[in-house]
Amino acid sequence: MSETSISNLVPSHDLYAVRLAKLEGLRAAGADPFASNWEQTHTSAEAAILFDEATQAGPSVSVAGRILVFRLMGKASFVKIQDRAGIIQLYVTKDEIGEAAYEDFKKLDMGDIIGARGPLFKTKTGEVTVRAEAYGLVSKALRPLPEKWHGLSDDEQVYRQRYLDLIINPASRERFAQRSRIIQEIRNFLWERDFLEFETPVFQSVAGGAAARPFVTHMQALDQKFFLRISLELYLKRLLVGGFDRVFELSRVFRNEGLSRRHNPEFTMLELYQAYTDYRGMMSLVYDLIQHVCTTVLGTTQITRPDGQVIELGGKWREVTYRDLIVDFTKDPEWFQRSKEDKAAYCRLQELDIHPDWQDFEVTQELYSKRIEPFLFQPTFVTQLPRELCPLAKLNPEDPRVLDVFELCINGQEIAPAYSEQNDPLLQRDLFEKQVGEDKQNMDEDFLTALEHGMPPAGGMGIGIDRLCVLLTGAASIREVILFPSLKPTVNS
Q1: Which of the residues 177, 254, 319, 361 has an alpha carbon 20 to 30 A from that of 112?
Q2: What is 163-317+378-480's CATH number?
Q3: How many angstroms separate the CA atoms of 417 and 422, rounded?
């Protein structure tokens, strides 16, 4: 490729071709357009605060970043570069860097990454600026930045080329920075409460811990079918058996199911388990956890939804039973005594698609998930769910038809389910058998064996990190908080 003019490979009118030609010129002149390093002494934010208002002067700094604004004015130019901390202005003159260097400087393009060294001063408009005594091209951008990125109507292009979104859109950059800080503060919170973080297998021989369709793969070394995990639960509970009383994992989970504004097949989950407590203990824990994250990362407990509605995460959170929500919605105190057919008929009046082969509890759950949960915007602990919904939780001792669990719903979706964990190995086996039916190969026998060695009573909880980030950052969609969401591959023409 080096012996053939690269610029001849694409049309001369193409901006890409123009930049390739500039690249050739740089290399022909002996310059390195892709430097190994630049000694960056300060970020843009660090440099800006060094300017002394009293003396109207500042020290010499070395900064680096991507060119976002380029104003050529004869013998002097103003450039704004963006680094991880923000944007800072450079003032570059022919007199300061020399005529030859200035001629090269004028050939730079928007999007190029450069470094500059020089003292700080303030312009007549009051902007702290670096008076460049030297500059260097750090990395040549061969493709131009989009001119009207905010005007793109195709959101998929934003998701496919997230790097451009991050360059151009400060709100997107801040959202993902917040996500990183949210995850950091979750870990800090749990470590301060004596939880230990562990890593459990991604490839599992049994897809257990939740009711979901798994991704299936084949491990060549063992000539064995494996599943990408749908939950972190069963291995973390093995650690409770092993004597670790407070455990958590914050990692990726995979479910071969929905793809929408609220669902992504690959998502981030926090699961934690604490011995010698129950779902009530988890209530206190998740309340304190979300309060901690809100105050440390956001500085507020009020979240404004894209539609303007304010969600208040401070104060006392509502607690209501699943049964009461259903009865309040249907205005039917006898709902749970009615036949499946009567329930299905009511649901069809609600324009819900009810499958004839569904069980009774599934009909009610469809009503809850489609007509009740999406409108639980303020923090709500929904308790005493039907026993059929989760075989891994303890039955309520006063009413064995329901479970000692809660689902924390905020912003119209489940943020965190939590259980008083089932630790009776015989009852657990019976519940598993009813769940899997004749498909016994989906029984995790090793997990049941672990329970037979004795697992302490425990509370367990999962938090969907992506959903939590949607809530806390005010995002409109789960795709706005996942850097690279699952998309159908493009076909190269």
Answers
A1: 177
A2: 3.30.930.10
A3: 15
